[in-house]
Amino acid sequence: MKIQFLGACRQVTGSQYFIQCGRTRVLVDCGMFQERPYLDRNWAPLPVPGRELDAVILTHAHLDHCGLLPKLAQEGFHGRIFATPATADLAEIILRDSAHIQVEDAAYKRRRHKKEGRAGRYPEIPLYDVNDVEAVLPYFRPVAYHQPIELADITFRFLDAGHILGSAILLMELRENGKRRSLMFSGDLGQRDRPILRDPEDIGGAIDYLVVESTYGDRDHAQNGDLEESLANVVRHTSARGGNVIIPVFAVERAQDLLYHFSRLYRDGRLSPFPIFLDSPMAVRVTEVFRRHQECYDEETKQMVEVDSSPFDFPNLRLVGSVEESKQINTFHVPAVIMATSGMCTAGRIKFHLRNNIVRPESTILFVGYQARGTLGRQILEKNPYVRIHGKEWPTRARIEQLHGLSGHADRGGLLDWLGTAAAPPRSVFVTHGEESSSLNFAELLRAKLGWRVSVPNYSDTVELE
Ligand code: ZN
User: How many angstroms separate the alpha carbon of residue 322 from the centre of ligand 1?
Assistant: First the structure.
């Protein structure tokens, strides 16, 4: 029995692991690489042709964990794709959106390269299109949390990971020549006490081999005090000035987390009704999935639904799909909260709302997520005096605020606490899914603090599980 590391090694995207055990061959996750300089790995052939794989097991629906599934269809895959029901629904939305972006990007590159008379570094054809997405969807097999699934030489089950709706820790039992080994993947591990979702489940028993993420392996989250009170304060102050609150959001989880907080603030009378717009067709579709999958809710959210109403339905909330309606938001003369994608302001409707508000000292741009270097979001967050939006320079006059505490990932302390729930030291721990320095630091911490055997695999390494 062996495991091959095919992504998220000393970097954070492209999660993919190939497991061979007896007659069974599976991939755990099949993610897209989204960072330079690793993008060309998206074009690398799989370790075995897609048609020779028995199954893919998905920990969750983020693109860096499921984004290469449509490539399998091109290779004749006809196995099963196991995922929790919420993950299966979210993955469909995310893959369709990804196909759309792939096709548009390739067309843009072709035009640009032609104009510049040069060849690009990456192929000018899309990785896949919507037909490939549709070809792979019939292979999905939704599996509830804790339900054991038997393959020939592997049994597995999903546990709650608390990262996004439907996200899972994966517990596997591998069998070969009378030998049995347990193998656990943390997947992306959430923080405890998050809105909507249950906490990550404890490791519980003794695990032989453990693959753990390390996105925040070298730091702890900044504390923001009472997050809902901070959010309410931003809205109160901005509305007193007569401005809008503009919040760039990611379509999955961050947008719905904010709706949850807003619905509680209104329900408890801590905030007077104030129009809220979620302006993103994708975020609206994702919110529908959140509404449907109440089996993923924690006790508090279940009670909210039973006693009051869904955190995704309150009177002053408007979910905006159409372009027409999106344009109308800015003709409203009342102060409003406007949430729109993309989360780092690199594309999408958020750019229109920023253009309309960045020059208004009475408005606030509120950041709730990480802004990568080089993005428009980062430039605004760093309070550049002028920023470029839609080809024009705009002076930054709006107030710029940031809320911490909404991260979807456990920090260093959270990861350590979770590992501390193991009943015994594993035979070996593999640290993945982190910037190289973060993974190396976290591995060192585990050796020093827990005395565990830990390694940080390199891309395409194969390890025999003895
Ligand atoms: Zn994730």
Answer: 28
pLDDT at 34: 86
Q: How far is the CA of 166 from the centre of ligand 1 (A)?
A: 11
Q: Six-digit token pair at 266?
A: 């209104």
**CA dist list (Å): 374 to 60, 345, 363, 389:** 27, 11, 24, 14
CA of 408 to the centre of ligand 1 (A): 8
Chain segment 369-427, per-residue pLDDT in tens: 888 878 899 999 999 999 999 889 999 999 999 998 888 999 999 999 999 999 999 99
Please tell me the distance between residue 163's alpha carbon and the centre of ligand 1 in angstroms: 7
Distance from the CA of 143 to the center of ligand 1, in angstroms?
A: 19
CA of 362 to the centre of ligand 1 (A): 35
Q: Rounded to the nearest whole angstrom, what is the distance from the C-alpha of residue 225 to the centroid of ligand 1?
A: 25
pTM of the complete model beyond 0.85: yes
Please compute the mean of the pLDDT values over residues 265-278 and round it to a whole number. 91
215: CA distance to ligand 1 center in Å? 10
Cα separations in angstroms, 303 against 127, 164, 194, 253, 307: 43, 20, 15, 20, 6
pLDDT tens per residue, range 35-57: 878 888 999 888 788 899 999 99
AA identity, residue 84: T
How many whole angstroms from 30 Cα to the centroid of ligand 1? 12
State phi, psi for 284 to the nearest 5 degrees.
Answer: -65, -45
Domain ranges for the chain = 2-219+408-464, 227-402
CA 434 / ligand 1 centre spacing (Å): 12
As its CATH architecture, domain 227-402 has 3-Layer(aba) Sandwich (3.40)
CA 217 to CA 416: how far, in whole Å? 9
Is 3.40.50.150 the CATH number for 2-219+408-464?
Answer: no
Percent of the chain with pLDDT over 70: 99
Helix or strand holding residue 292 (H, E): helix 281-292
Q: What is the pLDDT of residue 452?
A: 97
Instruction: Tell me which residue has tokens 């070969």.
Output: 176
What radius of gyration do the chain's Cα atoms show? Answer: 23
pLDDT band at 333; cut points 50, 70, 90 = low
